[in-house]
Amino acid sequence: RHPGEPPLDKGLVPWLGHAVEFGRDAAKLFSNMKRKHGDIFTVQAAGKFITVLLDPHSYDAVLWESNSKIDFGQYARILMDRMFDVRLPDYDSNEEKAMLKMALQNKNLPSLTKAMFFNLRTVLIFDPQTATQDWKDVGLFHLSYSTMSRAGYLTLYGNENKNYSDMSGQAKDQAYSLEVYKEFFKLDRYLMKAARSTLSAEEKKMFDNTKKNLWKLLSVKRLDCRANRSLWLDTYKQHLEDLGTVEDMQTKAMLLQLWSTQGNAGPAVFWLLLFLLKYPSAMEAVQREMEGIFRTRKQTPGEMHELSQEMLNSTPIFDSVLNETLRLTAAPFITREVLQDMPLTMADGRKYHLRKGDRLCLFPYISPQMDPEIYEEPEKFKYNRFLNSDGTEKKDFYKGGKKLKYYTMPWGGGINVCIGQSFAISSIKQCVFLLLSYFDLELKDPNAKIPGFDKERYGFGMLQPEEDVVIRYRLKA
Ligand code: HEM
Fold first, then answer.
1. The ligand 1 atom nearest the CA atom of 332
2. Stronger pLDDT, 129 or 178, i.e. the higher one
3. Best of 337, 417, 418 to mutate for ligand 1, by most ligand atoms within 8 A of CB?
4. Would you say the CB of residue 425 lies under 6 angstroms from ligand 1?
5. Helices (DSSP H) in 231-303: which residue ranges?
6. Does the global pTM surpass 0.70?
7. Which residues of 22-31 are buried (b: 16+ CB within 10 A; e: fewer)?
8. Which atom in ligand 1 lies closest to the alpha carbon of residue 326?
9. Quick check: 10 and 17 in contact, CB under 8 A?
10. Fewest Cβ atoms closer than 10 Å to its Cβ: which of 125, 135, 136, 301?
11. What per-residue confidence (pLDDT) applies to 296?
């Protein structure tokens, strides 16, 4: 290394370096490195040098740095190809993001929220498989992931029939969304290994078959015939056509987008519901807030025809529960390729050199999210951590005596921020409100432990549990 570069840890195995630990449990590896080297260091992994920055006060130096110096698109393109066989000529991630953002936010959000509400009802309340008045055992992860992915898929990719209340259309939506979800779930098991190119020959075969099944289900020809397609879908399709993408590649890109849009919200609902079931004071506070909202609008949950954006925006307790859930369970990497030798100045004035060709990685999960200097007992779920004593949202958190701009980053940040954040929040809220209003839910074993994380998933967004948690549920009388 050259003078002025961050401390380098090459591990014991030449070239491979820390690759194995990185894939197995990146949080553990980076925490160990932080103890050894401090809040900036470089690790070698499979021939690549990855500089990891863990000081949230210094994140702005990376998040807003120009694309000509550190680039997001290059690594994104590698993953798109490895995971989804997507190769787009002249692909510019910033241009695409700006275009799709409009379709998911601001004036387009209320219509998406409304469609999500109808689709959640279709898969949750009107599905005879789910909605029975007899107690039924189910894995909470399975229930949360399938409900959110099926309804999310119908909302973005369209319905069988324009009229949401048409019974035969609903039945087709239930069956088709379930088929898509089952294949999507299978695919999701292999994606981490695909991203790291560590699938065995047998796994690769299964992975390729699952992708083929999904390409059939999501073929652009099929999607063209669907009713209530979202503006997001039509904008994306048009964008692919403008890039001159052939039809097969358009279909592959549709699968990539299914994962970007449906991979995180279901796991978020799982952790949130699990924390509510394990912490009765949190459950009580959320239910009291929810009932209050209906009471002031003279509605009962049973008469719920719609949860307006205005209703969804007046839930500070739920918002704190969600922030706390995501603080504990969202662990994306923010990754950039260093395109030229360049200086990096930390917030406290330390200066480093970054080397062209290295990769730069922020991991907000370690700091700020799990940093004991910022959060007391960071490993514990405290539902009101993001509430001030007057009931407003708490935004003041400190490290080293200085107020933090980035105190939790489940949605990424800067150029890498999630464009679906508002839609995800309104969807998660609607799903939890519908489940709590229409169903009795309880843990099958009240002493069931909160499961550990599937550690291979550090870096890829929402974490998933090592194993599912069984609950009992039934439609309320
Ligand atoms: C709890 C739920 C969610 C979480 C925690 C989350 C988090 C994130 C994060 C961290 C990124 C940045 C990834 C990166 O740049 O490396 C991202 C990107 C993205 N998210 Fe979300 N997301 C969620 C739900 C959603 C939903 C529901 C949608 C769409 C309807 C969505 C659409 C997207 C898209 C399209 C991108 C890629 C943006 C780009 O081109 O850079 N997300 N999300």
1. 10
2. 178
3. 418
4. no
5. 231-242, 247-262, 265-278, 280-296
6. yes
7. bbebbbebbb
8. 5
9. yes
10. 135
11. 81
Burial 369-384 (b: 16+ CB within 10 A, else e): bbbeebbeebeebbbb
Phi-psi region of 198 (alpha: psi -120 to 50; beta: other; left: phi over 0): alpha
Alpha-carbon gap, residue 154 to 162, rounded angstroms: 12
Q: What is the pLDDT of residues 328-364, one digit of tens each?
A: 999 999 999 999 999 999 999 999 999 999 999 999 9
Asked whether residue 418 is marked as a ligand-binding residue, the answer is yes
Q: Which residues pair with 52 in a beta bridge?
A: 41, 361
User: Counting runs of H as helices and runs of E as strands, what totals does the chain give?
Assistant: 17, 13
pLDDT at 400: 96
CA distances from 163 to 115, 119, 170, 220, 406 (A): 11, 11, 9, 22, 43
Stretch (H or E) spanning 95: helix 93-104
Q: Round to whole Å and give the CA distance between 31 and 33.
A: 5
Cβ partners under 8 Å of residue 473, min gap 6: 135, 136, 138, 143, 439, 440, 441, 442
Tokens 């994962």, located at residue: 259
From the CA of 257, give the closest atom in ligand 1: 35
Mean pLDDT over 163-184 rounds to 96
Task: Give CA–CA dist 466/393, Å, rounded.
Answer: 32
CB-ligand 1 contact for 361 (6 Å cutoff)? no
Q: Give the whole-angstrom CA distance, residue 230 versus residue 434.
A: 22
Question: Is residue 293 a contact partner of residue 315, using CB atoms and an 8 Å limit?
Answer: yes
Residue matched to tokens 């009580």: 284
Pocket test for ligand 1, best of 92, 260, 328 (most atoms within 8 A of CB): 260
What b/e readout covers 435-462, taking b as 16+ CB neighbours within 10 angstroms?
bbbbbebeeeeeeeeeeebeebbbbbbb
Amino acid at position 360, single letter: L
| Residue with CA nearest ligand 1 atom 41 | 416
Identify whether the C-beta of residue 270 lies closer than 8 Å to the C-beta of residue 438: no
CA of 114 to the centre of ligand 1 (A): 20
Nearest to 377 by CA among 327, 321, 412: 327
pLDDT one-digit tens code per residue, 389-448: 999 999 999 999 999 999 999 999 988 899 999 999 999 999 999 999 999 999 999 999
Mind listing the domains of the chain with CATH numbers? 8-475 (1.10.630.10)
Query: Which tokens is 416 given?
Result: 């890498």
Residue closest via CA to ligand 1's atom 1 equals 265
- Residue 155: burial class (beta carbons within 10 Å; 0-12, 13-18, 19+): buried
